[in-house]
């Protein structure tokens, strides 16, 4: 689990990021989870945007992504979810 201080740090790091994945009307699927896992391994921190035609609640989507990728939800803001997972090989972020 992340501490409040770590989440604040990650939110500031994520502020300038653009969402690289979008969840549409089909919701979350295995392929998407696999791709997001690979992206998290490379980047550690990323944003996922939820499109307006997504039928599921953004909290449900965030939890599905978090469980599927074993990542932490840093924040849900508007229709964006910020996810963090410590990388095994490409460690870039040094948490406070």
UniProtKB/TrEMBL annotation:
Among PANTHER family, the record links this protein to: RNA-BINDING PROTEIN YHBY (PTHR40065:SF3)
- Keywords (A to Z) from UniProt: RNA-binding
Q: What is the taxonomic lineage of the source species?
A: Bacteria, Bacillati, Bacillota, Bacilli, Bacillales
Query: What Pfam family is a match for this entry?
Result: CRS1_YhbY
Record GO terms (molecular function): RNA binding
- UniProt xrefs under InterPro entries: RNA-binding_CRM, RNA-binding_domain, RNA-binding_YhbY, YhbY-like_sf
Q: What is this protein called?
A: Ribosome assembly RNA-binding protein YhbY
Which part of the chain is the CRM domain? Answer: 1-96
**NCBIfam families referenced in this protein's UniProt entry, alphabetically:** RNA_bind_YhbY (TIGR00253)
């Amino acid at each position: 689990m992340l501490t409040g201080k770590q989440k604040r740090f990650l939110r500031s790091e994520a502020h300038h990021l653009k969402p690289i994945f979008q969840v549409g009307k089909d919701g979350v699927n295995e392929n998407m989870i696999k791709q997001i896992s690979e992206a998290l391994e490379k980047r550690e921190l990323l944003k996922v945007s939820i499109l307006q035609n997504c039928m599921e609640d953004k909290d449900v989507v965030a939890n599905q992504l978090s469980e599927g990728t074993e990542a932490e939800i840093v924040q849900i803001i508007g229709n964006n979810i910020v996810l963090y997972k410590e990388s095994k090989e490409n460690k870039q972020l040094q948490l406070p």
